[in-house]
Each structure stands twice: as C-alpha cells, then as structure tokens.
C-alpha cells in the first residue's frame, strides 16, 4: 500500500473569523493532493468506478480534515453533495409583523442568454426540495428573481431572490 503524502489537518478552532477563507484555501490544497495521487473523479469512467473514487476521496478528505471534522461528519445521518437536505416534514413557520403591508414587486428581466440556465437551476432546486412551486393561487408577497454567472465556475449560475422587502416584515 502506498503511503499517503504529508498534509496538514484543517485547524477548525484556530481563528473563527477567518475559518471560511482558510477552509477554501485548505480545500484547494486538498484538491491538488488528490490530483497528485491520482484520485480525481473523471466523467469518462464507469458509474461503479466513479462511486469507488468518490468514496476514496471522501475517506481521504475526512482523514486529512482531522478527527473533529470526522466526528461531525459521522453524526450526520445522510450526506449528499451538500451534506444532505433538510428532510423535516414540517414547514418552516415565519413570524411576520402583520402591521407591515405585503409587497408585490415587479418581475425583473433575466437575460436571454441566462434563461435556460435559470430554468435548469430552478428545476434542480425543486428536485432537491429546496424550493417548491406555488400551487394555491396568487400570493401576497412577490420578490424578483436574479441570476448572475458564477465567477469561478464558468457555465454555472447563481440564482437568488431579492428578499429585502419581505425581510422587513419578518420578526
């Protein structure tokens, strides 16, 4: 068996203010190590090989991330590409200030070149139970949807809703 290359564990509690940035840099270094030891997911390989490669990548990620991260991961019941989606059957109940009048904002145009990508992203979000279609008629609150290309991921979009007006009513 080949020895694993030396690689520093991610220091979770080092500085909480820079944890996000440190994590991003650590992941980039981790991806380089995975490429160096030839543990790269490739689209041209079979589904079984891809599953085995993904499992190996996950095991190496947890090994290098350290015991604290591994302990947290072990407590998660299900993991997916985003470490699972919320599977609670109950709807989230927002407490809304009834004295604030509901706002129906105008639709903002989405660039023609982005429309197919927006449709695809909305379908993905719906399939992952992150969003759901409105089925019971018109709603009191309507907020505009926006889409911008992700700067570091060509071909992918960031789709979001302008929630400034509704957020004023949430207690």
Automatic annotation (TrEMBL):
<dbReference type="GO" id="GO:0071897">
    <property type="term" value="P:DNA biosynthetic process"/>
</dbReference>
<dbReference type="InterPro" id="IPR043502">
    <property type="entry name" value="DNA/RNA_pol_sf"/>
</dbReference>
<dbReference type="InterPro" id="IPR050951">
    <property type="entry name" value="Retrovirus_Pol_polyprotein"/>
</dbReference>
<protein>
    <submittedName>
        <fullName>Uncharacterized protein</fullName>
    </submittedName>
</protein>
């Amino acid at each position: 068996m080949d020895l694993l290359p030396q690689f520093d564990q991610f220091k979770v509690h080092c500085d909480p203010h820079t944890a996000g940035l440190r994590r991003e840099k650590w992941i980039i270094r981790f991806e380089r190590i995975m490429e160096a030891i030839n543990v790269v997911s490739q689209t041209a390989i079979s589904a079984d090989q891809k599953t085995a490669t993904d499992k190996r990548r996950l095991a190496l990620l947890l090994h290098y991330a350290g015991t604290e991260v591994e302990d947290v991961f072990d407590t998660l019941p299900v993991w997916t590409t985003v470490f699972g989606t919320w599977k609670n059957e109950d709807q989230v109940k927002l407490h809304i200030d009834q004295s604030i009048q509901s706002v129906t904002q105008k639709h903002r145009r989405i660039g023609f070149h982005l429309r197919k990508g927006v449709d695809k992203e909305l379908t993905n979000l719906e399939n992952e139970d992150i969003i759901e279609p409105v089925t019971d008629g018109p709603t009191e609150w309507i907020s505009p949807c926006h889409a911008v290309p992700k700067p570091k991921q060509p071909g992918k979009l960031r789709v979001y809703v302008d929630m400034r007006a509704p957020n004023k009513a949430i207690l």
